[in-house]
Amino acid sequence: MNQTIALIGSGPTAIYTLRSLLASARPLTITIFEKEAVAGKGMPYHPAVNDRAMLANIASIEIPPIGETLVEWLRRQPDAELDRLRVQRAAIGERAFYPRIVLGEYFKSQFDRLVAEGIARGHTIDVRAGHEVTDIALGSDDIRLTVARPEEPPQHYAFGHVVMATGHSFADVTEVKPGYFASPWPSNLLKTIPAVQVGILGTSLSAIDAMVTVATRHGSFYHDEAGLLEYQPASGSEDLRISLMSRKGMLPEADFYFAIPYEPLSICTEEAIDALVASGREDLLDAVFELFARELTACDPDYAAKLGLAHLTVETIGAAYFAERESQEPFVWAARNLAEAKQDYESRTTIAWRYAILRMHEVIAQVVPHLNADDLKRFHRHFKSLFVDNYATVPHASIERILALRRAGVLDIITLGSDYELDSETCERGAIVTWPDGRVHFDAFIDATGQGRLSASDIPFPSLLKQGVVGKAKVRTGGQIILGDAVAEQEEAGGVGLDACYRLEFDQPLCNRLYCLALPFLLHQFPFIQGITSSAELGETVAQAIVAETGQGLVMQPEPMSAEPALALVAS
């Protein structure tokens, strides 16, 4: 059996997979394909994609160390390198947030180190930067890759194990029409936007980063004598106006202080969730909500009483959670929340209800793949948003920039509601946004709503689709879980159908050692499976599965294939 391994991509998910693979005592043969010219940085942190002002929304202490922690790596950098990265040595700390490109440099350094150490320990590792995998086809006992390089004929290889760690997927063309940007990336394109009326769809960190990129093109942030961050438009850019837009018209909250590693939960535990799943009960989501409510009440009874938690349900918890914030002017709320968050960091005070929800999101995520179709829809529509709001808090600097732009008269927020229209067809530039309370033609418009969930039909490898091995994930249509050999009635949901090791599920007699770790395809069944911590967990799971199999066979070199199309190789 071909025991060689291919990693498609070299961002964080691939790096953590590589780290776990190299723990194997048996020498492995690994080839890493990266379409960018430099391997090891990953799209979310690549300098060609991100503006230097764009911040990562994960504190250094939360990043699982690879060879060393981010703080250790930063502290051993020379002053000249820190200056290049715009990091002050005195400000380096475990709770600090850094620009995205800093994380890219860190991952690149750790990637290079892993490769060197792996080779020194007897593994064979071939890093092929500037190589884009354009097709995948399954053979009977191997997996065929078609690999392209600029101005060269495609090359074909066969591997025993392939890990799709392709990361996020955005449109090839960002400015799809004059003044209309389908994504904030690459950020350098946003620098072409003149000082006009700019609309940004979204209020998350991606939208805030887009806002900052446009703002720094037309002015500067500075600290006044009292240390308050302010914004000064450049001469000739006084007409710049930016609007952040979302259905609720709310800003994300500032990162809050909490203990790391997480303190254990007492009621809504992994064991309790597993017991509910194993019980086969048909009201699974409601039973999970009961655990959630009991845990939240135990952790913060005053907050539970204020929320009226005893009378809430899956359908009503979201409205109650957001009610107070929705009733407040968003910039006033942001200023007050930022002040509270800063004070809590100074005093190392944890807000009990926030911390409880943060810890529960990872536990409750375990039940989502087991929900029936109706409950899955209920979860996404009503329950998920409060967890996302809680863990998607943003760096304090991001809120400070928002408030500075507001004081400068540059920024406002539009509450669109659920009934709004976006028209990019009837105007020459930008887009027209219409909502119940208004209508604005934005000369420049940026969709910063982030990566959406992708499904089976979005797989970018045509041979896999032709072979019919990529199917949507399936969920029960309702009723009790059927245990044993019986099969419950199922219907297709979104995402991609995968087994517990993230391998494609199919019936054909083909190699099943293709692992899908491309996060957008996992989000429907695993809604919280995003970010660096998820990358580390995914990489470990897949690496353990691969090592368990490769330990039973010989290590072989990748087999060079003929220049025929990959699907033809399968057919032959």
Q: Based on CA inertia axes, which overall geometry fits?
A: globular
Average pLDDT, rounded to a whole number, is 89
Tell me the strand percentage band. 15-25%
Trace the largest sheet across and list its strands: 8-9-18-10-13-14
**CATH level-two architecture of the largest domain:** 3-Layer(bba) Sandwich
Over the alpha carbons, how many angstroms does the gyration radius reach?
A: 25 Å
Q: End-to-end span in angstroms?
A: 18 Å
Tell how many strands the DSSP assignment holds: 22
Largest sheet: 6 strands, mixed
Structure report:
This protein is α/β, with parallel strands linked by helices and 572 residues long. It has three domains: 5-43 and 127-169 and 453-571, FAD/NAD(P)-binding domain; 175-252 and 394-447, 3-Layer(bba) Sandwich (FAD/NAD(P)-binding domain), CATH 3.50.50; 270-391, no CATH class. Helix content is 34%, strand content 17%. The protein contains 16 helices and 22 strands. It has helices at residues 12-21, 70-75, 79-85, 100-120, 205-217, 270-279, 284-299, 301-307, 317-326, 330-347, 352-364, 373-391, 396-407, 462-467, 532-550, 566-571; strands at residues 5-8, 29-34, 124-129, 132-138, 143-148, 155-159, 161-164, 175-177, 180-181, 197-201, 219-223, 229-233, 241-246, 411-415, 421-423, 431-435, 438-442, 444-447, 474-476, 490-492, 514-516, 559-560. The protein has a six-stranded mixed beta sheet with strand order 8-9-18-10-13-14. Strand 11 (219-223) and strand 12 (229-233) form a beta hairpin. Helix 7 packs across helix 8 (301-307). The chain is globular and about 65 Å long. The two termini are 18 Å apart. The model is unreliable at 479-488 and 552-572 (pLDDT under 50).
